[in-house]
Design a protein that fits this description.
The chain is mainly alpha-helical. It has helices at residues 2-15, 17-40, 50-70, 78-105, 117-146, 154-180, 191-199, 201-204, 206-213, 219-245, 255-280, and strands at residues 43-44, 48-49, 184-185, 189-190. Strand 3 and strand 4 form a beta hairpin. The chain is globular and about 60 Å long.
């Protein structure tokens, strides 16, 4: 399994070098931010926070790796594949630059209240360019949903479909934050939690799909476990969306947070089952 994973990684790098290199750049920026915080602390007056640089760069790096991994399975024409690739490259390049530079300068890269006109315009452009991620996500989900049987790798592609649906919800949360000019709503609601969980579906849902694909389970049981885990994850995200829209923190005990936790436990059970089944035959 490890050898196949390494072979897949090499193959992804060969086919999507630009996305992989940009992903690695995210980890370099995150590492540099962590090094800076160790000696200088996280806060840069008046609005900057290097913790945001660290988390944003690392998350975007992981996201770009994931897009590079699924892009070859989309069945795009050469032209459309270039479009999706370039949309992500353009959006990621600007996002890295403004998130890093503005925080180190002491300004909020998105909704600065202390900066001047240039900082405000840069934040507005950040929002506009972020729409490139939304557009590429829509193109990907349409393409994967249009694919008809027989699928080349049905279990993995099913996981990709669910993951892209979650990413679409994450993008909606991003658009809400843009309209609010803030990630916060009400007394404790924070849309960044919803946004982050949706984007990380590219890892949390593709991992069990890949493991099930390499398990000794019958195809019917593979599909059952995968659908159960992915649907539980999607429902958990919807409960988080409701809790957040009510202006309440997801870490506040309530009906919706408890239901979301139960759904996440179902997802975790399917991941553990997939891992045990994949390891059993090795």
């Amino acid at each position: 399994m490890f050898n196949e994973l390494m072979a897949s990684a090499v193959s992804i790098f060969k086919r999507e070098k630009a996305l992989v290199i940009l992903g690695l750049l995210g980890f370099i920026i995150a590492g540099s931010a962590a090094f800076y915080m160790f000696f200088q602390g996280a806060v840069v007056q008046p609005e900057g926070n290097i913790k945001n640089v660290f988390s944003f760069a690392a998350a975007l790096g992981i996201f770009l790796f994931s897009i590079a991994a699924i892009l070859p399975f989309a069945g795009f024409t050469v032209r459309m594949r270039k479009v999706v690739r370039r949309l992500n490259i353009a959006a990621a390049s600007y996002s890295y630059a403004i998130e890093t530079l503005q925080n180190f300068r002491g300004f909020n890269p998105r909704f600065s209240k202390a900066g001047g006109l240039v900082d405000t315009l840069g934040g507005a452009l950040f929002g506009v360019i972020s729409l490139s991620f939304v557009v590429s996500g829509i193109l990907l989900i349409i393409q994967f949903l249009r694919m008809k049987a027989p699928l080349p790798r049905p279990v993995l592609i099913t996981g990709i479909r669910y993951a892209l649906l979650s990413v679409f919800i994450a993008n909606l949360a991003g658009l809400i934050m843009m309209s609010l000019q803030s990630r916060f709503i009400g007394a404790g609601g924070n849309y960044i939690v919803l946004h982050g969980m949706g984007l990380h579906s590219l890892q949390t849902l593709l991992l069990p799909a890949w493991l099930l694909e390499h398990s000794n389970l019958r195809p019917g049981k593979q599909r059952m476990l995968l659908h159960a885990g992915c649907i539980a994850w999607l429902i958990a995200i919807m409960f988080i969306a409701v809790q957040t829209s009510l202006g309440r923190s997801m870490f506040e005990v309530s009906l919706f947070s408890i239901l979301a936790l139960l759904c996440l436990l179902v997802w975790l059970f399917t991941v553990i089952s997939a891992l045990m089944s994949a390891c059993k035959i090795r």
